[in-house]
Amino acid sequence: MLSHLRPALVLVAIFTILTGLAFPLAMTGIGGALFPFQAGGSLIEKDGKVIGSALIGQNFTSDRYFWSRPSAISGPDPNDASKTVATPYDASNSAASNLAPTSKALIDRVAGAVKTYREKAGEGAVPGDAVTTSASGLDPDISPENAQRQVARVAAARKLPEERLRALVAANTAQPFLGFIGQPRVNVLKLNLALDSLAAAPPNS
Amino acid sequence: MTWNGWAEIALVLALIAATAWPLGVYIARVLAGERTPLSAVLGPAERGFYRLAGIDAARGMGWKDYAFALLVLNALHFLLLYAMLRLQYYLPFNPQGIAGMSPRLAFNTAISFVTNTNWQAYSGESAVSYGSQMFGLTVHNFLSAATGIAAAAAVSRAFAGGGLKHLGNFYADLTRITLYLLLPGAIVAGIVLIALGVPQTLSASVDAVTLEGAKQTITFGPMAFQEAIKEFGTNGGGFLNANSAHPFENPSAWSNILEIWLLASVSFSLPLMFGRIVGDMRQGWALFAVMAVFAVGFVAMCYAADAGGNPLLTAAGVDPSLGNMEGKELRFGAAMSALFAVMTTGTSCGAVNSMHDSFMPLAGMIPMFQIQLGEITPGGVGSGLYGMLVFAVIAVFVAGLMVGRTPEYLGKKIQAKEVKLAMLAVLILAFCILGGTASSAVNPDALTQLTNAGPHGLSELLYAFSSATGNNGSAFAGLSADTTWFDTMLGIAMLLGRFGYVVPVLALAGSLAAKPKLPPSAGTFPTHGPLFVGLMVGVIVILGGLQFMPALSLGPIAEHFALLAGHTF
Q1: Which of A129, A167, B115, B205 has a 20 to 30 Å separation from A156 between CA atoms?
Q2: Which residues neighbour B533 within 8 Å (Cβ) at sequence distance 6 or greater?
Q3: pLDDT confidence of residue A82
Q4: What is the ipTM of this complex?
Q5: How far is A12 from chain B (nearest CA, A)?
Q6: Between helices A2-17 and B139-157, what is the axis angle to 10°?
């Protein structure tokens, strides 16, 4: 027993220092030096203020913006800590609905979301990503079909021609590498940032 | 299902297969203490560690000595982590001022990490300080993975010759695997992950003001290094609650491909390490083939079952062309979510990039079934190989029964004692999984923790005990598992599933090592051809799988037919 204690203790101590302290700190140094933007969370700044991360979705509710996917994140109610309230895209947390495919709660929620979506985006089958919650609750992307279906609403709210917005969505759509690595997708925060600068610029520029 | 989905799956599987042979040979060389390209740098460090710790790396250990060393080191490390989680409020690197864990949650979490399970009954954002993540969880990610590979090496050596007294030196195996394999792998992969967008910073969260003027607090931390070892060591415990589905842990299609490769590459290479240790690569390829048959078959089934979307949602007006998107991230899509799910449960990793709880019933059954097979397709690092060798012993025993000869595996006679030990290991899994599920299903307090009703509720319990016993760590996460009942029961299941399995297996190895190695004769059943591969696949499905069929029929299979009939719960 005692002959095993020393090697066990010393190895645990050495590897705690090595893999638990030295290398994480070294990696932090290397990462910060080589890739400061990524290592720091891919933060986007505007006028010197952090407005979000390129990798983390945001909750958009105004008709003037493209909307992200529904988010299942919830948190304690600020008025009553014993209750929970929906806190979509709260990036100090992350969560999924974990509802089963046969869950009545899921079917009812999606049916309600389909109805709301169609009120703004017209009839027809609704893109799957537009009414389902993601695995993290922070999904930064939507499908190109979902973005195109929102163009009419945003164009009306901003009084911009739809063709310009369709072109903007197309320009902000990432296509799969070689046609099969990755998914066609639109980063909502970047699209909305482009939308704001488009609206700020004169129409013919 | 789309052609590009299948093409992306094929690409990743090809990458994993391509690295299996070189990686397996490299690991065998490292474990034998041979010179490798990294020896010039790491050799002095390795020898320094031995001197400090009083280790004679050349001293062989018998199976009891080896098992004892393994248990002592892991017990010590468990106590250290338990203390750290309880006291983290007072320890350094806690910028968010996170409180210490409750006794039961610290117990569950410490067991979870020492057993390479990484079941998360806690939420990474709010319950674990940076200090605990680094000095505690990350270190366990290394040492529990190295423990598994060391045990697999010890079992492999039992077949290498006749009349062997020793299975190797546990401390040397552990040190070499950590220094020459896990650490360099985690460093390179960690830097690539940072480049792809995974944060690595010691600063706490940032408050952003969104475009609509709301406040968004964004949590990150020193994640990339832990992300790398969490996959490479098939650990799976996420820095954040959503694990590898979180855009910070897994930001793009590229990081996703890298993470799948990381979590599967070592497990698929270990049969070839085995081949080199026993001096017959064909034996290694046969075991590799068994693992590959299952992995490819399960990926195809899971993708096919999930990619058609949920007919109940299609009826509600949803376009099914993207697949079943509830609980999935758009950047991965249906194909890469299915592949990740199958690879993370086929290995004992348990990281997730999508929520298995929301998979279509039959698609969600595949990950669960893989864990129940005993985590051997290809299994966790090390544990997959020794689990596979247990089934090899049983397969030759079954073949021996059919033709009426004393079975042999690699020239070692398999007799009553070996078969009993192998069956003991297999039955421990069924005992913990089915016993735990059944006792929870009759406990009213346990049932209040379920998110879903009907057959899916049973699936949540069955998945939890499968995952804990198989040391996987993924979940049907609708189960709120931080209760006294679940923290305790799942903690016990994790302990028995790891150490109640590895001790009989080391005993089996010790018994086999001592036997003479008989030369093959005309009557020897060859264990490297397609016939043996087919036999093993059959034995694994019939022996490993059938004991879970009744439970699966009541859970996911019943749910599948309910869904077809339009029933909701």
Answers
A1: A129
A2: B286, B289, B290, B293
A3: 83
A4: 0.95
A5: 7
A6: 130
